[in-house]
Specification:
Elements lengths: L25 E4 L4 E3 L5 E3 L2 E4 L2 E4 L2 E4 L7 H8 L1
Keywords: Disulfide bond
InterPro entries: CTDL_fold, Sushi/SCR/CCP_sf, Sushi_SCR_CCP_dom
Pfam family, one: Sushi
Length: 78
């Protein structure tokens, strides 16, 4: 392969990086790292959520102004 004739979309695996981003109004969680596995599939831990979510450790939460008990909140999502 001639490096002078490589298009941007052809450059995967040729010392290039893949940049993952989210659409406007969404924010990215996770490491942002994509790994090409030996079977040709990509492994990643990227998640795009609507703006307003917060990550704490390995979990993502959305904070609300109104306070509810655990049972009260559970009823709202069912």
């Amino acid at each position: 392969m001639d490096p002078d004739k490589i298009n941007r979309e052809d450059a995967i695996g040729l010392r290039r990086r893949i940049h993952a981003s989210c659409f406007d109004g969404y924010q990215k969680f996770g490491s942002g790292r994509l790994v090409c596995q030996s079977n040709g599939e990509w492994k990643y831990d990227i998640l795009c959520e609507e703006a307003g979510w917060t990550q704490f450790g390995n979990h993502i939460y959305r904070l609300f102004a109104d306070q509810k008990t655990w049972m009260g909140a559970k009823v709202c999502i069912l």
